[in-house]
Specification:
This protein is mainly β. The protein has a single domain, classed as Jelly Rolls (Sandwich). It is built from no helices and 10 strands. The protein has strands at 2-15, 19-42, 48-54, 64-65, 69-76, 83-90, 103-109, 114-117, 139-146, 152-161. The chain has a 5-stranded antiparallel beta sheet, with no helix packed on it.
């Protein structure tokens, strides 16, 4: 087991023409004993599943345990093209181990940018302004990349602990 340290740093030299502005935040996730790391080529006009989460990792090949995953990062490695990250959400939470997405949230990820989140377990909800407010957080079932009309590469990194 190892400790994962994640540091996010923002630096703005000569801010307002007077001084440098530097901010940094670090977290440590202890007991990491499983990582999932891939560079994925996403073909033009094709949605590509880059991570899939389940309550049981043996449900499918390359499945990541929803409750054991503690950190995930998706980075758009392309130098000029954005991608859409489609976060597939399981709001049924049947507990069967075979999650099924039935809600989606989409995030635009510009060239060179990263999307970072902690655990995919009970971590996301979608609010529909026409319905009552959804207050229950649900599991992230999978992440799809929609690259649009240009092929791109994304980096996927997930750190998990064994419960």
């Amino acid at each position: 087991m190892a400790d994962l340290t994640v540091t996010i740093t923002e630096s703005l030299p000569n801010y307002s023409g007077t001084s440098d502005l530097d901010m940094s935040n670090a977290i440590t996730i202890t007991g990491v004993d499983d990582i999932y790391h891939r560079i994925v080529t996403c073909l033009a006009n094709v949605d590509t599943t880059v991570a899939h989460f389940n309550t049981q990792v043996d449900v499918e090949d390359a499945g990541i345990d929803t409750q054991n995953a503690k950190y995930l990062r998706i980075t758009n490695l392309d130098g000029s093209n954005p991608v859409n990250l489609n976060l597939q959400i399981d709001v049924t939470e049947s507990g069967s181990g075979a999650a099924a997405a039935n809600e989606t949230a989409t995030i635009l990820l510009a060239a060179g940018q990263s999307y970072v989140m902690g655990t995919p377990h009970d971590s996301i909800a979608v609010y529909d302004a026409d319905a009552t407010a959804q207050t229950t957080l649900h599991d992230l079932e999978s992440i799809l990349v929609d690259p649009g009309t240009n092929a791109v590469q994304v980096e996927v990194f997930v750190a998990s602990v064994v419960a």
